[in-house]
Amino acid sequence: MSKISKFFKGGGSASSKGRGRPSPQEALARLRETEEMLSKKQEYLETRIERELAAARQYGTKNKRAALQALKRKKRYEKQLSQIDGTLSTIEFQREALENSHTNTEVLKNMGYAAQAMKKVHENMDLNKIDDLMQDITEQQDVAQEISDAISNRAGLGDEFDEDELMAELEELEQEELNKKMRDVRLPNVPSTSLPSHP
After folding, report:
1. N or C end of the chain, less CB within 10 A?
2. How far apart are CA 106 and CA 139, in angstroms?
3. Where does the pLDDT of residue 194 fall: very low under 50, low under 70, confident under 90, or very high at 90 and above?
4. Contact at 8 Å (CB) between 52 and 78?
5. Inter-axis angle of helices 64-121 and 127-152, nearest 10
6. How far, in Å, CA of 27 to CA of 105, rounded?
7. Mean pLDDT across the stretch 48-68?
8. What distances in angstroms separate CA 119 from CA 109, 110, 113, 136, 138, one per listed residue?
9. Which stretches of 122-195 are DSSP H helices?
10. How far apart are CA 86 and CA 178, in angstroms?
């Protein structure tokens, strides 16, 4: 059995084993902790990327080997950062899905309480009215099941974003940065005297 399958099948903490499945609140808390940890790692990697870029600039042509090593480290950190971005997106999606599932569970539980209350109110009704009531409850349970099925369908991560729109937005940001830099460029003054007509 691989380490990963051991982790998912039986590698949980002793407290989780004793109680069965974790509660939605516990799972949400763990997902939030993981998001926080990954966000800190993102900040750390972004700082390291900036340092390596500064080192590469500093070495420049003076020490090409050191500059190349700094750029290689920067690329590795960027790859890790990209992986963390993807993981964070997955965790955010999972957290949102879990929050929605928990909400739907509460709604369904309350619908069950309402159905029980309706039963109690209608105990003294005749059989035809009770049959009608049970049919209504069954229909509501079918609706609840459809909602639950719709929520549990796996949605494609990232499909809701148009890659071309994102690239266009990135190009706009890059152009803004370039425009800012161009504003700071000082050009030499044009001479006020006319140039000689012959060399």
Report:
1. C
2. 18
3. confident
4. no
5. 180
6. 15
7. 87
8. 15, 14, 10, 12, 13
9. 127-152, 163-183
10. 28
> How far apart, in whole angstroms, are the C-alpha atoms of residue 130 and residue 121?
11
| Tokens encoding 184 | 């700071």
Any idea where the domains of the chain sit in the sequence? 24-125
Structure tokens at 125: 């009704």
Instruction: Indicate left, alpha or beta for 20 from its phi (over 0: left) and psi (-120 to 50: alpha).
Output: left
| Cα radius of gyration rounded to whole Å, the chain | 31
- Mean of the per-residue pLDDT values of the chain: 80
CATH fold group of domain 24-125: Helix Hairpins (1.10.287)
What would the pLDDT profile of 112-160 be if each residue is shown by its tens digit? 999 888 888 777 777 777 788 788 899 999 988 888 787 777 555 555 6
**Residue 34 neighbours by CB distance under 10 Å:** 15
Quote the CA–CA distance of 165 and 163 in Å, as a whole number: 5
CA distance 7 to 1: 10
Report how far residue 100's alpha carbon sits from residue 106's, in angstroms, rounded to the nearest whole number: 10
Query: How many other C-beta atoms lie within 10 A of the C-beta of residue 106?
Result: 11
Separation CA 98–CA 151 (nearest Å): 10
